Amino acid sequence: MATGRTHRPATRSRGIPEATVARLPLYLRALTALSERSVPTVSSEELAAAAGVNSAKLRKDFSYLGSYGTRGVGYDVEYLVYQISRELGLTQDWPVVIVGIGNLGAALANYGGFASRGFRVAALIDADPAMAGRPVAGLPVRHTDELESIIRDNGVSIGVIATPAGAAQQVCDRLVAAGVTSILNFAPTVLAVPEGVDVRKVDLSIELQILAFHEQRKAGEETTAPSGAGAAAAAAVAARPAAGGRKGPEGDVPAVMPA
Amino acid sequence: MATGRTHRPATRSRGIPEATVARLPLYLRALTALSERSVPTVSSEELAAAAGVNSAKLRKDFSYLGSYGTRGVGYDVEYLVYQISRELGLTQDWPVVIVGIGNLGAALANYGGFASRGFRVAALIDADPAMAGRPVAGLPVRHTDELESIIRDNGVSIGVIATPAGAAQQVCDRLVAAGVTSILNFAPTVLAVPEGVDVRKVDLSIELQILAFHEQRKAGEETTAPSGAGAAAAAAVAARPAAGGRKGPEGDVPAVMPA
DNA sequence: ATGCCTTTGTGAACGCGTGCACAAAGATGG
DNA sequence: CCATCTTTGTGCACGCGTTCACAAAGGCAT
């Protein structure tokens, strides 16, 4: 999962909880797969299993959308696909620009799942003049100078930032100024945006660090010796500035304060 | 943010809440930036602003790690960098394999932030024999046949899946069987894993759909006419199977049931 | 030493999200 | 038409996460 979200916290939009919104795409994907196999109806139990969630949670999620099921039978697949698509706003076309056509930007441009569901790559934009005109995923790369006009001409409201961290905020500012109100940020930076602009962040480094945390914990649980090779390094690296014996989180690293 | 997580729900590891763990990398990044500018200390207010969070939340987060601040002064940057690094398990080296060296896999392999923080790309693996041996990001691509031996020889416990959706579960199974216990999944699929294996999911498509939802809501709020061009399409596409007048989520699409 | 000022650390309240468990609803068979 | 069986929709309780607000703690000037 990508982490981080920058939403207005309270404004539960239209009564649908944020957590539910985040799961709707999951259900939609599972339903689409069923639809392609021409499965007419599905029970909450089956669908929940396919989406990897609890069936009670799924039913409650759907209850926010309305009463779309039939008791004793289940949910009509096609109908539900449409309802969720509509709720997510996928019945309309969303032009998207990708800024920063490096390795990642190119990968995103080539991503098939992009176009499949209402999203259309309106333009690829890069700051490097040498990139300009070169085709990537069948589209010619445009230069950053054209950013504003591209946004306006295509009515783009969703922008994807795949630039280096240093350029992200500047690109973000220009996108927002040009009218973009939703941003998907792949650059490892915290973006500052005005009220009313949604930012979602996808950060590989953060995901790995979270995994490392759990990995370390798992490793520490097997061998009940928390003081591994890292302890020595701890004493070497960490130099507690203030005096006074501090205790670690739970007695771990007991007073390793050299000074 | 990448969405989705597959953790054991309850097991609050070592007393540090999951939500806090997810923010630690954010703090760490902000602190590292401060460290490079040789800033000695930072207050919770300043650091919170840099990390894009509430200062009260930051202080509570740090309180789970221990009492590492000095009242009236703030936090020692270097010391905090070390404490968080240690807590996240970044003081040790984590060998990582990337499976699926397409556009995305190559982008990940080239990602700089990878090596910077304790993570080392042990191998790039792809199923295409034509890829084998070709250097990507300075590493020769290895064939899938070698997956198990690579995992074992390098003691890899973290795997990154960047394959097409169809291959993801199979790759996942092999990774887990070979000893991987943490997986970062970029394929748009729900992965089934045994107990004790952590999966984090990064899904571009889902992120975009969530943005589209909010975008649609914003658009619908300006123009107070929810019944847009989509309504007609609704009647055309949706064919409610069961009879009986259903009402939409809040009166929207009122009884558009062609029967 | 003393008092003031800054900033941390945390107790408490609140709200959101999750899961249980069950009543209501509808299908189905006789 | 009635009984039975399946599955939905949801009231309720619980736990996690967030935020407020403040007392305690330490630095610093006098």
From TrEMBL, chains A, B:
SMART domains associated with the record: CoA_binding
GO molecular-function terms, A-Z: DNA binding; DNA-binding transcription factor activity
GO BP, one annotated term: negative regulation of DNA-templated transcription
Binding, NAD(+): G100, I101, G102, N103, L104, G105
Keywords per UniProt: Cytoplasm, DNA-binding, NAD, Repressor, Transcription, Transcription regulation
Organism whose genome encodes this protein: Streptomyces morookaense (Streptoverticillium morookaense)
DNA-binding residues (ranges): 26-65
Protein name from the UniProt record: Redox-sensing transcriptional repressor Rex
Ranges where the CoA-binding domain occurs: 89-190
Cited Pfam families: CoA_binding (PF02629), Put_DNA-bind_N (PF06971)
Main function: Modulates transcription in response to changes in cellular NADH/NAD(+) redox state.
Subunit structure: Homodimer.
The encoding gene: rex
Entry GO terms, CC: cytoplasm
Disordered: region residues: 239-259
Gene3D superfamilies: NAD(P)-binding Rossmann-like Domain, Winged helix-like DNA-binding domain superfamily/Winged helix DNA-binding domain
Localization per record: Cytoplasm
Family of this protein: Belongs to the transcriptional regulatory Rex family.
